[in-house]
Amino acid sequence: MSITVEIPTPLRRLAAGTPRVVCSPTNLGELFSELDRQFPNLTPHLRDEAGETRRFLNIYVNEEDIRFLGGASYSFQDGDEVLLVPSIAGGAR
């Protein structure tokens, strides 16, 4: 079983410029552990100090918000496409 994880442009600088990763996690915790292993600089942008998903990180599985699929308990299926979307705010006055 494998899934594809799309790394958005704002996070690619922390993932050695990698646009996508193919891996075989069964759930979100395993996915984060795999990304932690491959890209340690990405870790603080995915999870907070308590190990929970960052509040402003949205995760989509096959274009569906993972929160509506069961959140961290969702079991990935072969061929799932995962998109990590960090909320970005700011700008000039």
Concise summary:
With 93 residues, this protein is α+β, with helices and mostly antiparallel strands. It has helices at residues 9-12, 28-38, 43-46; strands spanning 3-6, 20-23, 57-61, 64-65, 81-86.
Descriptive report:
By secondary structure, the protein is of the alpha+beta class. The protein has helices at 9-12, 28-38, 43-46, and strands at residues 3-6, 20-23, 57-61, 64-65, 81-86. It has a single domain (3-86), classed as Beta-grasp domain (Ubiquitin-like (UB roll), Roll). It is 20% helix and 23% strand. A five-stranded mixed beta sheet has the order 2-1-5-3-4, with no helix packed on it. The radius of gyration is 13 Å and the shape is globular. The N and C termini lie far apart (48 Å). 17% of the residues are buried.
